[in-house]
Amino acid sequence: MDWRVWHDRYDTPGSRMAQRLQVVQRQIRTALDSSPSGALQIISLCAGQGRDLLEVLANHPRRNDVRARLVELDERNTAFAEQSARASGLHQVEVVTADASLTDQYRDMVPAHLVLICGVFGNITDEDIERTIDVCPQLCATGGSVIWTRHRRAPDRVPLICERFEARGFDLQWLSDHGTELGVGVHRFFGEHQPLATGRHMFKFVGYDKLGL
Fold first, then answer.
1. Is the pLDDT of residue 15 over 90?
2. Residues 177, 191: Cα–Cα separation, whole Å
């Protein structure tokens, strides 16, 4: 899979990916609007070109309060994200070309007020979905939110994702309609933030094409 070309789908008006991007961006705006005053930390796993977050921050009133780290392995996508961030004057946004599954990438950015796990759950195994959610209490601040995505094609793993988040101290705040193929969810963390266990991999990014999804 060419993940640089994959992002071109966002530019097709009315496409499912364009619609998902808009939904995720609305939820990011809502999270920013409802965040407490003061500095905010945001991390994005497998951030791709960072369009979900960067396009919101570009004109959001809280942009100067945000310190963000986008972690993505494809250097062509990180180059795009870096250029977008600089063009918008978002100098407090750090774009890192690295393995986003490694907990070390977030060592000085947790607990985060907003954790983005978009485009991940549809590309990893069920076991790794659960393992990643299990780490979220180490990534997310108490009162912070996780925004995640997962397609709803069979087998629909959205119920599993919601159950796992709830078992780890997260409450469902918003979930896209069941009838839509591309699921988007928002979970807020009401548990106690846990110390980050470094040196661990949360998942192996397989790709939906190789998973047969």
1. no
2. 26
